[in-house]
Amino acid sequence: MIYHLFQYFEKLGWDIPGMGLMHYLSFRAILASVTAMLFALIAGKRIIRLLQRHQIGETVRDLGLQGQIEKKGTPTMGGVIIILSILTGTLLFCDLTNIYVILLLVSTLWCGALGFADDYIKVFRHNKEGMSEKGKLIAQVVLGFIVGLTVWMSPDIVVREKVADPSIEVITENGELGVNTETQVTSGRYVEEDVVKSTKTTLPFIKNHEFDYRWLSPFKGAWGWYAKWAIYVLMIVLVITACSNGTNLTDGLDGLAAGTSAIVGVVIGILAWLSGNLIDSNYLNIMYIPGTCEIGIFMSAFVGALIGFLWYNSYPAQVFMGDTGSLTIGGVIGVAAVLIRKELLLPLLCGIFFVESLSVLLQRSYFKFTRKKYGEGRRIWSMTPLHHHYQDKKQVPGQVLIAKPVPPHHEAKITARFWIVGIILAVSTLALLKIR
Fold first, then answer.
1. What pTM, to 2 d.p., does this model score?
2. Which of 197, 223, 277, 325 is the most exposed place for a label (fewest CB within 10 A)?
3. Is residue 421 within 8 Å of 351, Cβ to Cβ?
């Protein structure tokens, strides 16, 4: 709103000191991050008191985890702090007419409402299971289709592909007249094609960093055009659903999901910034996607909100984010990655979420298989999601393929080590931009 207010003043011809700073994306990103962080710090304390007053506390079952019983009664549904902080920073300093910002705001509110409904059932209806898995999955899939169809049909979501300037001609190695692409890029002389609706995305480890979902289409011609977009939309649905659920599974220790997500948010913000900058995208040989710099500002608010929330959520936690926060965080990460065409980098960047989800799937599958084969279910880890394996202090009946640590690790140490792994994965993801 402040951004649009200053734009309005500029149209009126008013010369307000400092007004020109709003043209700088870096300045708005800093303001959005700091504002979201301060809001979380200031409003967070009051929201926690409100949750305590209404006895909105966590119900805990004794699963034999170290420090678990002490968490009983800790206020939950603290994801409201994260959502309000994100909205504050975004609404004040983002371009609210930008299609990418609109989609991220819709995703934040959608996933926040879904998580709030799940937490409401757990807390007020005393149903520990919360909303059914099928119900949550349907809501996530619907959001995925909303985003996917918007990416397909919106004229504002486009990719600009750069082509060689025919005026820059050189003699090639085989003696023929050609175009000096390197000179064109380094000198800043280029010609842009008309904007195109594209199903291309970024692929790591290859020279041009691009993969087109059109290559997966079994049809050509008009049918091929519809098929490639159908494949792309389904991929978007899968990514958003997987990210939302992966973050939800990771939310099990004080500060784990918030800290890991903040690291991921920094990288996505940087990638969005680079993708929306013509010079930087040229230099790094990645797709230039106009308008994605605003995603960088949104992600700045996202990271600021998470850091502010960590003030209260770090060990020992004064508040839990609940599904209100975890589903929202995962949804935002998935949508943002899709919009900047970096969804295929998520298994590396979000390696923590990926491994946590994979541990649950493998554990369930192995347990069912061994129960059918041996009459007794066996486990790969003592408990999943994976972070609980290192925290587990009880003896698990039956065979366990991977022995748990003895004595079990303190949850603060587990969280810190997961953060370290997350930072390594984040740096590795950024390093892929220079690997051809």
1. 0.89
2. 223
3. yes
Q: What is the pLDDT of residues 41-100, one digit of tens each?
A: 999 999 999 988 877 766 655 555 656 666 777 888 999 999 999 999 999 999 999 999
